[in-house]
Amino acid sequence: PSSSSSFGGGIVAGWLRRGGFGVVALAAGRRIGPVAVSKPEEVECDVCIVGGGPAGCTCALYTSRADLKTIVLDKNNTTGALAITSTIANYPGVDKTMPGQQLLDEMVKQAVDYGTDYRRAQVFLVDSQGEYKYVYTPDVTFKARALVLASGAMGRKASFKGEDTYLGRGVSYCATCDGAFYRGAEVAVVGVTQEAVEEAQFLTKFAGTVHWITGKDPTGVPFADDLLACDNVKHWKSSRLLSIDGDDSGVTGVVFKQRDVEEPEQLAVTGVFVYVAGQLPITDFCQASGLEFNKEGNHESGIKVNEEMATNQPGVYAIGDIRNTPYKQVVVAAADGCIAAMAIDKYLKGRKNVKVDWVHT
Length: 361
Description:
This protein is an alpha/beta fold. Helices cover 18% and strands 30% of the residues. The protein has helices at residues 54-65, 100-113, 175-178, 194-203, 224-228, 330-349; strands at residues 15-16, 22-27, 30-36, 41-50, 70-74, 117-120, 125-127, 133-136, 140-149, 153-154, 171-172, 186-190, 209-213, 233-236, 239-247, 250-258, 265-267, 271-274, 280-281, 293-295, 298-303, 316-318. Strands 4, 5, 6, 7, 8, 9 and 22 form a 7-stranded mixed β-sheet that branches. Helix 1 (54-65) runs parallel beside helix 2 (100-113).
């Protein structure tokens, strides 16, 4: 996950009026009034998808196969959650040694082979409340009959020395994704959130020892007592992680300091799972669009959708991590994309029921 937003970076957040081409912008939360900009090129399509991860690519595959003109706008296909995953072992039909970037490249190619127009572009604003949806990039405005928000979620900035250096080489934010690679190994889990507890519990199935490093007493955190009751969990309470160490092979250990111990201590571990803060859905480019969020007024809670991945606005869908699902898995994101695409096909073609996409031989 990127440490900063992939879409817009908060540079422009406001309303672009189609009558003229003035932008009402916000700078550091302050309204600065209309700003004149030149009229960009306008490209029309049936479906515009913001985000080229597994959710967006799967949606594009299905909409393109349904003969809907589909455009995918992707800021950078090398920095998303899938792209930075070293190997994918829990996606059906994929060799367990396949890197995440390779799987993503295959997804992009498959969508393009069926007619998707895949473009590298930064989206800074969407206007999604009318019959047509407008997606603004610095060079082109895209006019679509249906809009899909699939920009994913961004991680927090790296908190510890060595965290970004060894990300994907021993540092992970997903035990469900990577836990099986640490069978019999020594691993560390950092954080005292419910997510940290649940992920540490998952790791106990594989790791020889799970070293749980917490800065405060975990009393009251759901399931913490169950975790501490596990025979292969070592709890380092009132402790602060200082650094993550390693070499060319990846993580080799951590340095931490207990509150009541004078000198820092070292632990030899090959995996470090960091849960000091969660991921935030990337919504800065659509916060002024009138979309509903899971918690009213809180864009960090994710975009609210129904069982068809449809938002509160007709023709607008949200899939993948942008809706803040707790099941942050590639296969779930792909399923979101499939569901949204079939719903879009029904919506645009005025059918009452979805049309199943399969090939009869």
